[in-house]
Protein 1
Amino acid sequence: MPRRGNVYVIDDDQAMRDSLDFLLGSADFEVRLFESALDFLNEVTMLPFGCIVSDVRMPGMNGMDLLKQLKNDRTRLPVVIMTGHGDVPLAVEAMKLGAIDFIEKPFEDDRLIGMIETALKQAGDEAKSEAVSQDIVARIQSLSPRERQVMDGLIAGMSNKVIAREFDISPRTIEVYRANVMTKMQAGSLSELVRMAMRGGVIRD
């Protein structure tokens, strides 16, 4: 298991690929090399989580086209774009398309390594956060229609009696539904339920 994670280098220049393979391998990354963006896309679904380091100017599918394709496919791998001198406007456009950062050639080894470490950490944290949000959404979807109505009433600040009156149900029955909601949502308190509702998109900012 690599200590620092996986890096996927995409560059049509073999000398650059070999150089980055040596640099990043020495820095304890697990490195895979790709001669073209298409070669990478053909394998991306089978690759473990990692950081993409791609040149921006390549024959065939260039770095910008790669970013567009990754965005369309909802691929959540972080991307660092390598640019030649004078390609800064292109690099800024790349960041608008989802690249985490860009670096101009020639670059300092430590700067690229630092960028990759940051990209992996940020993307890893986002992935964990996204997984939590998806889990909360699944819990919300597990509620019955009546339980969902009760939850909506609770997060709106309504008391059991008011919710009971709203749906013409006895307060005792509402208490049962409320207990079911808290159990299914795995919420230990009303404030926690509200936070989950916000995270799950029930309450919009």
Note: The chain has two domains: 6-129, 142-199.
Protein 2
Amino acid sequence: MFGLIGHSTSFAVARKRAEELGYMEHAKGDLDTWCSTPPQLLETFTVKSPTGKEITGGYIDSCFLPEMLPARFKTAARKVQNAMAYAQKNGFSVTALGGFTSIIFENFDLARFQKVRSTMLEWQRFTTGNTHTAWIICRQVEDNAPRLGIALEKAVVAVVGATGDIGSAVCRWLKQHTGVKELLLVARHQGRLETLQQELAGGNILQLEEALPQADVVVWVASLPKNVEVNTNTLRRPCLMVDGGYPKNLDTRIHAPHLHVLKGGIVEFWRDIGWHMMQIAEMERPNRQMFACFAEAMLLEFEGWHTNFSWGRNNISLVAMEKIGQASVRHGFRALGLSDLVTAPALSIS
């Protein structure tokens, strides 16, 4: 049995969902109420692969809310730990950390705290899902850039958030597998950028405002900050932007002719799943679409790989990406593409 640990995208969405489920105390409660709420197993469901194999899973809401950061980071960390302990005690063989839960785990180095009250967490039961997410983002670049007339062997690709776990894996894959003309590396930590550049034996380190006008493809593995504006008039036409950050916000902030924003790291299953959890994440087709990190837990269960397939920072190998990618195709997942886009209202940031 596999598990998925997630959370609502906002306090407002969480309260609405609580009302729908009949949790009126939480629907009307304030943030303090949610801070003291333990994890909840909201639903269980079955998933069937095209191979014929059927597995059972469960969705655990950590009851974390983005509004808890940054002021209540200790509460956020505790919620992730409690959700992991809950999954283990309830017998989930492998559980994916979705949304902010994996970010909180890594950024707050929660691996230092293996014991949660009376439970000693067994790390092999958990995965961040980042390997599958990285592979899906690379597949989205490879499949969709040519549709816009962008030949990757002649293209300049900027990776924003290049030094993160997913970002560095995307850089390695694009360098080795697609032979892009040039990689532009964008991140906040100069030392990590220089280390990545040495590992890749290439790539140009640039600031965001320098990289964007040069790029035919931009892979965002970090959300666009609210206080940062993008002058769309300076961007290349056409330009493919793959929004692999969390939360995803490019499609509402960057919209202009010949700029194509694609939700990165999202997959669609081959058939409907009888769950309701993806309505919380506001997927276009919630019965089939999900985050690639969640799909990784399903793939590990389908294959019987009960291990922390994705764990730690910058440990994703090309071999592991190929392995999870093959399993992804075998079990009926596909990456979202340009043909899946729903037209958004015109909004130009300049």
Note: The two ends are 48 Å apart (CA to CA).
Protein 3
Amino acid sequence: MKILRLIRRFDREEAGAVTVDWVVLTAAIVGLGIAVLTTVGGATDDYGQTIGSHLSSQGIKTTY
């Protein structure tokens, strides 16, 4: 009967439901972040390479 009482108490406990909500919310935020980084990542890499090549072509003035 102790196991049955433990199961009933577990069924009435609501703290686990809040934890599940936070886990789902956190997973959604992480998924959204990954989607944004995947979408923007390629364009950012291309733009960074363009800036790098432009800066490489510039000379450094050592005298004034």
Note: The chain has two helices and no strands.
Protein 4
Amino acid sequence: MTASPLVIWGGTGHARVIRDALDARHWRVVAVFDRREIPSPFEDVPLFVGTDGFARWIQTSPTSQTTAACVAIGGADGRSRLDTANFLHSQGLPLPTIVHRTGFVAATAIHGDGCQVLAQAAVCANARLGHSVIINTAASVDHDCVIGDGVHIAPGARVAGEVVIEECAFVGTGAVVLPRVRIGAGAIVGAGAVVTKDVPARVTVAGNPARPIRVGT
């Protein structure tokens, strides 16, 4: 079986994590894109800068196989992740969901395009993930959770059952979200926080129990 070509948008550390999660029997990385002129994260793969670089690459890329894409924009920048995914989709590149060989996705879980379930992460029964969601290393999303488009659950975070996390929110490394809590769109949960009650949209919380430390606009 010939591995299918795949490009990665985002040229920093998360790109390396993505490549490690790919099954090399099915995917081979042929190009990396970033908005900045930086070294490629891979010695064997060229990096192109911005949409101009993408246009140059796509003009010269082989057309015999459909090239897929993956967005390697981590952190709390869910909006950029979604915008980039939409751009790649508009250019005819499908965005497969990537599940690391040690990751777990329950048979009853549902996910949109472009999700990433990374090493030792778990998505449990009846969970629903939107598009371009990251469940990062050793993070877990328990039963019946609803996770919106562009959400990032950072390494080691624990999201208990029946939690709702709205579009582009971010749950930081090692944070814990207790059952039936709702986290609003664009909210940020700080590393190690314990969320015991709802978090409004675009509010940053931290601590145990988590309390607001900043309100966005």
Note: The longest strand covers residues 27-34.
